[in-house]
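Q: My labmate handed me this sequence with no annotations at all. I'd like to see what the chain might look like in three dimensions before we decide whether it's worth expressing. Could you predict it?
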Amino acid sequence: MDLLIQFWPVVLGFIALIVWLVRLESRAMDNTKEIKRLWNQRREDLEASKESRENLNKVLAEIRADIKTLISKVGGRL
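A: Here is what I predict for the chain of 78 residues:
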């Protein structure tokens, strides 16, 4: 009993160290999950922007074709 009374600060320090390490590991795991979520979100955003660019290119191609058609009709009249 005297040994416990004499070394209680050391025992308390080891317990605090273990608690701190467990919390640190928990944060590391949470950060890993968050990084994976952000990478997935980034991939989805890149796919959405690629699809949006493809749709925009299709619309622009249609507009360009319409303009060429109009120019050819007007050019024939001049």
